[in-house]
Design brief:
mainly alpha, two-stranded antiparallel sheet, 17 helices, about 60% helix
Amino acid sequence: MTSADSDTGLLAPGWTASPAAAETGDAAFLRALLDAEAALTRAQAGLGLVPAEAAQAVTEASDPGRFDIASLAERARGGGNPVIPLVADLTRAAGEDHGPYVHRGATSQDIVDSALMLVAHRALGPALTDLDRCQRALAGLAAEHRDTPMPGRTLTQHAVPTTFGLKAAGWRSLVLDARDRVTAVRNSLPAQLGGAAGTLAAFTAYGADDATALPAAYAAELGLRAPLLPWHTLRTPVADLAGALAFTAGALGKLAADVLTLSRTEIAEVADGGAGGSSAMPHKANPVRATLIAAAARRAPLLAATLYGSLAAEDERPAGAWHAEWEPLRDLLRLVGGAARDAAELTGILRVFPDRMREHLGLTHGLIVSERLAAELTPVLGRARAKELLTRLSRRAHEEGRELGELLAAEDELKDLDLSAAGDPARCTGSAGVLTDRALERP
C-alpha cells in the first residue's frame, strides 16, 4: 500500500485525472505547506530578520520528496493539524545551523491558510482555462444555431418557440459569469500571517522594527495578495472562494441539466458526442459528462454551506471552525475543476439535431403559437373574444388531434385573415436572434 492509496479518486470520476486532481492531492498540499514555510524564511531574510543562507537552506530542504506524507498525516492527530509534525521534520532537514529559522514567529494557521490559498490559486488556473474552452465552444454553437427553432419549455411543457442559439448563448452567459467570479476571487486570494493571536508580536520579539511590513513581503514570495489584517477568524477569503466555486458548479449544472433533458431518448434534440456505455445494456449511450457535472452541482452547495458556517469563528483563533474548512474546500476545488473539464469536453463535441427540434414544434398541433395567435386576433376580435376562441379551439385541437390553424380557418369570422405567418412556429421566435447576437458581443 502506498501513501496515495487513499487519494486516487476511485469513487470520484468527476474529478479523477483532471488538472484539479493533481493540484489538490495530498502531495500538492504538502508542496504548498513547504512552499509556505520556505517563503516565510525568505521574506524574513529579505527584511534582514534572518540570515540569507538560512533562507536558502530552508528552501532547499523544502523538497516534498524528502517527507513521508503518511507519517505526517498520522502524527497530525497529535496537534490537530499537519504543520506541527512538518515543522519538526523540516527543522531537522534544514540542519542544526539553519533549522531554528524554520517557522520562526508563525503559527500553524498561518501556514495552513497560506497553503490553502496556494492550492486554490494553482487549482483555479486550469479550471479557468477549461471555462474559457467551454465558453468558446458555446459561442460557436450559439452562432451556428442562431436561427435554429426549437420548443421553449416551461414547467416541463412546451411553451412558445425559441432557438437553440439563444439557449446556447444563455449557457455561455452563465459560464462567463462563473469565469469572472473565479478570476476575481483567484486574484484576491491572500497570504496569511499573524502569529499566535494575530498581532505579529513574535516577529517583533525576534527583532522586526516594523513587523507590519512582513505580511506583504511574505505574500510577494508566495505570489498571493497581501492581507490588510491577519484573517484567522475573519474568513472572508474562504467565504468568497466558496461562493465563486458553488456558483460555478451551479452554472455548469444548468448546462448539464438541459443537456440531460434534451438528450432523453424520446426527445433526442442533442447528444453527447462521446457518450458512455452501460455494464448491462449494449444499446445505451449515456450522457456521462453531463451526469458528472450534474453530480458536482448537487454536492457543491452543501460544501459551500460548511465553509459559510465556519464564518462564525470565536476569539482570535477558533477551535473546530477552521479545521472544518479544509476538506470541504478541497472537495469544492476538485468538483469544480472536474466539472469545468467535463463541460469543456461536452460542449466541444455536443451533437445538435435541428430536424428533431423542428419536428417537435409540431407536437402540440399548433398550440405552441397560441400566444402569437392571440396577439394577431385581439385587434380583430377584441381581447376577451380572442382568448375565449383560442381556449376553446385549443382544447379541441388537443382532444381531436387536429391542427389549431385548421380549426381557426373554419371559423367564419376569421375567413378573411391570413394567419399563416403567425401559425408557423419557426417564424415565432420573437427577438431570439437579436438577443443571441447581443449575448455574443460579450467577450
